[in-house]
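Example record

Each entry pairs one chain with its bound ligand, zinc ion.
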Amino acid sequence: MRGAVMYGPGDVRVEERDQPKIVDATDAIIRVSAACVCGSDLWPYRGIGVEDVIWPAPMGHEYVGIVEEVGAQVETVEPGQFVVGSFWASDNTCEICRAGYQSACINRVPMGALGAQAEFLRVPLADGTLVATPDIPDDDLLASLLSASDVLGTGWFGAVAAGAGPGKTVAVVGDGAVGLHAVLAAKQLGAERIIAMSRHESRQRLAREYGATEIVEERGDAGVDRIKELTDGLGAESVVEAVGTQESMLQAIGATRAGGRVGFVGVAHDVALPGMELFWSLVHLHGGPAPVRRFLPELLDLIWKREIDPGSVFDLELPLDDAPAAYEAMDQRTAIKVLLQP
Ligand SMILES: [Zn+2]
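Structure tokens for the complex follow.
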């Protein structure tokens, strides 16, 4: 089968990979209907944090597809069903999973290591990981269902972790797909004001479509000052951090009012929080790799009923064989999010 493999920073190739097989009785094999390139795939692509990467590395951890085959112990999904999973395979039964933190499941398996940018994918812990849709979806739902696999679920977790809810003012730092979906989530969760921080016209437009009521173009300290100006000098009650840099994290903390919440979902790179700044901020910090599985049933239901259209974040669709071009487009920010069609 065909699959994307990174040979080193900036070097993605699509090549013949071994057809995945059932290894454990709890596995499923799916025929991937759509996959995509994640903002987090760009870190190794740019050579950041690659000290421990073993090249060549199969790529991709976002996927939807049709179940081809299941192991002997799989009970909740069967061949022929359309399924969505997230970037951690999880049993969904351990104590951590039952508390809603499936991304820290005691038996978790990173899907990125299995490489979802491919024609077929082995999904461990299939019963816990995969959620089937009521039927085979219409083509126009495919992108939205795929988004639930990571970006939507991650943005959603960011908004939940930030305490977004009715009457709240929510600010979102980061205008990538996750940030934009955090805007969508904040709207769905009933936020009154949603401030998107973005300086790109096309991303601002999408943020408004998803429910942003205000846009702030300033960054860093100037961005913090602007958020304070818009909130009577107090800061926002809920701030989602969806970038993962020192500047964005401090921007998020600085833009949050005392007693407010920061939901941080950008993969942190060289972020070191100054203790005194944290001490005086009086904010709640909650975040990390999103337990997307917690939200999947609810998100699939909203998508199935066409109440949300997160798939519009995909502004480029390419055949799997063009994966190198997909990475380049996202790296150069000429595309927000690229869908790959195996
Ligand atoms: Zn678990």
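The chain has two domains: 2-150+291-341, 155-287.
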